[in-house]
Amino acid sequence: MVLVLSLNTKLEPQAIEIAAVGGLNSCVVDVKNIFKHSNLNNAAYVACIHNHPSGDAEPSREDVLLTQKISAAGKILGLPLLDHIIVGEYGYYSFKEQGKLEQVLPDDAA
User: Fold this and answer.
1) What's the pTM value of the predicted model, to 2 decimals?
2) Which of 43, 88, 49 is nearest to 67 (CA)?
3) Are strands 81-87 and 45-51 parallel, antiparallel or unpaired?
4) Each residue's pLDDT tens digit, 37-67
5) Which helix H or strand E contains 33, and what residues bound it?
6) Which CDD domains match (predicted)?
């Protein structure tokens, strides 16, 4: 399952939506769905969260490519991707914490 968190300019959550639901081993994500609800919610930023049913939170090649697509689309749409978090059985992986996403917040932001 892929969730999209819409945040305002103060980084306050405005809405959380299900963008995609997958099977046991994979989930097909349409990047348009990532931004559809955030756009309707007048979000300033988005964050994506999804789980790995295997329990291993390490990103797959597909996760990395998806994150790159979402980040690029967000720049074009003016809805920057703050983070993409993968949740596993024993932990999580944050693309932001691992330095895999560009800084999108102004220096004086939260």
Assistant:
1) 0.89
2) 49
3) parallel
4) 899 999 999 999 999 988 899 999 999 999 9
5) helix 31-40
6) MPN_DUF2466
Burial of 104 per CB tally in 10 Å (0-12, 13-18, 19+): middle
Whole-number Å distance between alpha carbons of 84 and 77: 17
Length of the chain: 110
- Which residue matches tokens 């003016």? 78
Residues 6+ apart with CB under 8 A from 39: 77, 79
DSSP conformational letter for 60: P
Alpha-carbon gap, residue 31 to 90, rounded angstroms = 27
